[in-house]
Amino acid sequence: MRFDRCHATILCAAAAAVLVAGAWATPASAASAHETAPPQLDEKPAAGVTSETAILAGGCFWGVQGVFQHVKGVRSAVSGYAGGDREHAVYEVVATGATGHAESVRIVFDPRQISYGRILQIYFSVAHDPTELNYQGPDHGPQYRSAIFPVNDTQARIARAYVTQLDKAHAFDAPIVTTIETGKEFFSAEAYHQDYLTLHPDQPYIVYNDLPKIENLKTTFPQWYRSDPVLVTATN
What we know:
Shape: globular
Mean pLDDT: 89
Largest sheet: 6 strands, mixed
Oligomer: single chain
CATH topology: Peptide Methionine Sulfoxide Reductase, Chain A
CATH architecture: 2-Layer Sandwich
Low-confidence stretches: 1-30
Number of domains: 1
């Protein structure tokens, strides 16, 4: 099993303490839901369009992938890298923080079932904390930044409008630092990063940082939660 320097350091007494009698106890410092209002600007599915793609970054891709694999209307969620070039889209190199990449997730969804705006609402509400600049929880560096990578002008317009909406409403106690980065390509991560949350539910990093996100999705957006995740391994 492979970890970066931040994932390795979380294997400590504080994380292990959440394993109580074989059950998970959510610590006070774990991720908490922060339900945001739905976006005022969204898009209706175009006639005949059955598939769209969203690319989002919000810290370690294990948790972000895990969240969207449990969202109804999502057909696939793949961990990877966006923001840099193809040559340097390698985990050990991205982990240096010098490549311009962010750990990201490419989400393919059915716009007839869930909109891009709703995807963003879930992203801001339960998938990560958009007020943390160049880090998420224990993971530090620009590769863990909060970023949206629109795949077209419509997505860029919706994302910018939503960030403005949330900031004006003071939805968070601090300013949103999420960047909106256009024209960036996505590169899939190595196979051992795919479906990580599902395959390693007892790993202390997952228990402490990511399983609470799945529970928050279930309780905050029950209408969008599905118990069986859509897995990369099931579609290959």
